[in-house]
Amino acid sequence: MILFILEGQSEERIAKTIQKLYFEERKGDIIYSYRNNIYQLYDRLVAEREGFESFEGAVDILRILKEKNPADKTLHAIEDVSDIEETYLFFDYDFQHAIKQHEKNPSKTLDECIIENNRKIREMLDFFNEETEMGRLFVNYPMVESLFYTKTLPDDNYKSYNVDFATCQNNGFKRLVNKISAYKNRAPIIITKHSKNKRRRS
Prior knowledge:
Shape: globular
Largest sheet: 5 strands, mixed
Number of helices: 8
Radius of gyration: 18 Å
Strand order of the largest sheet: 2-1-3-5-4
Low-confidence stretches: 196-202
Helix content: 25-40%
Mean pLDDT: 84
């Protein structure tokens, strides 16, 4: 069994599209939407490890997920974390989190909040570095919409695109993606409940 821990609904739709197109035969894998950002998850992990000398001795991420969403029957059907063969986490870098932290703590500059977030990201990448142990973390930069920051597919220039911090504020990057992409509303790329039944294998 593979457990995919995703940030939100957008990531969930992307993962289910990939699963439908390429891994439909794998019925036991679980796609779980955490519905919060990577920094909130990290803070919870830090709280869990308090009093332990090592991170590994303190954290049972399956229990954390179950406690966060007691109504998720699929998640609660997993009896033990050892039942999971591989774990992958997909979260946004999320500039907005630094902005919110700055608003909550005006004594800290926005640059200081960004530096703190970067420190946490580095620690998380060091911790979640093996899919068969604690899991492997992948960070969408600046957010999952970067997947759609392309004019058409294939796009040879995709790897050279970049954005600045100002563009990412107030959903600016999402608007930019919608402007540059030939795939409006991502309809040709993402399978939805309205479109998946219309697709047929050749």
